[in-house]
Amino acid sequence: MSEKIKVGVLGATGMVGQRYIKLLENHPWFEVSYVAASPRSAGKKYKDAVANRWLIGAEIPEGVADLTVQDANDEKAALGKCRFVFSALEMGKDEIKALEAAYAAEGIPVVSNASANRWTEDVPMLIPEINYSHLDVIADQKKHHGWDKGFIAVKPNCSLQTYMMPIFALQKAGYPIKRMIVTTLQATSGAGYPGVPSFDMIDNIVPYIGGEEEKTEKECLKILGTVKDGKIENAPGPLVSSTCTRVPVIDGHTATVSLEFDLPDDKKPSLAEIERVWTSFTSVPQELKLPSAPEHPIVVRHEENRPQPRRDRDTEKGMACVIGRLRECPVFDVKFVALSHNTKRGAALGGILNAELLKAKGFFEN
């Protein structure tokens, strides 16, 4: 590739914004040329705006350190400085929704980490290995709003990344799923910074995360849905019952899953067949050799005590779903434990993979 695409980061001083800045360092396709945050950071050099609160544990990339932070509320300031923006905005949902639309209206595509537009019916909520075909709705989105080059695409809740690929792989292989019980054990980094108070987390598990159970039970239906008449229609199933907990782990969301197939007993897959489906699964990101795509999207481990966050979250650069303890379930059909890296696949690196897919499909052409 001859020249890198210049990109911006909205909410660049926050935790997810910082991860975008670091993960985009030396990216083969993209180069950060524009950073924006709240008015209190605007006008400062990036390195000064994040002084004493750079959270990533490595040096600020040289190419970004001296960039002047702009006011994220001024969408026109980005014109001519970047081809598209990553949105890591931290504000009210209505404010984010309006601001992302304002950037799109100015002809600046928005690849968002925020939840504000996840349920907008003409906005694709992407896991590139699963619902790449939802990119088709962008043409309708642009037509609906009268946008020329701008559009909005979002990523789903981080906890879904833990188990959606294995579920999709089974359904794609001809093994539809009727219902599931999911319990998530979510890392503290998923709460952002400063996040959950230490007194609540040390020697403790918090059995409630506001809004997470609703997201876990419903977002999967949009991801598995289809584009029809200019909008995304939810899939009718599977039916999901979830319990979402916060555990004293820094990075890496774990989920325990029990599922029942929507098949007669003699048509249900064996454990060996399920593992074959998972380990052979690849999709469009692998075919296109996108820079951030894992070579093996699903990795199966056979040790009785894996996956574990500390040992397995960085598998395939933090972009794989790692599965273990696949076994028969005495209530449903099978059960397993799955793990994904919530601040890589589930956040900034997942957003970068979305942008890579959009670029490869021509959505950032002039």
Automatic annotation (TrEMBL):
One of its GO terms (biological process) is lysine biosynthetic process via diaminopimelate. Keywords: Amino-acid biosynthesis, Diaminopimelate biosynthesis, Lysine biosynthesis, Methionine biosynthesis, NADP, Oxidoreductase, Threonine biosynthesis. Pathway: Amino-acid biosynthesis; L-methionine biosynthesis via de novo pathway; L-homoserine from L-aspartate: step 2/3; Amino-acid biosynthesis; L-threonine biosynthesis; L-threonine from L-aspartate: step 2/5. InterPro entries: ASADH-related (IPR051823), Asp-semialdehyde_DH_CS (IPR000319), Asp_semi-ald_DH_pep-lack (IPR005676), NAD(P)-bd_dom_sf (IPR036291), Semialdehyde_DH_NAD-bd (IPR000534), Semialdhyde_DH_dimer_dom (IPR012280). It holds the Pfam family Semialdhyde_dhC. CDD domains: ASADH_C_arch_fung_like (cd18130), ScASADH_like_N (cd02315). The keyword NADP applies. This is aspartate-semialdehyde dehydrogenase. It comes from Treponema porcinum. The lineage of its organism: Bacteria, Pseudomonadati, Spirochaetota, Spirochaetia, Spirochaetales.
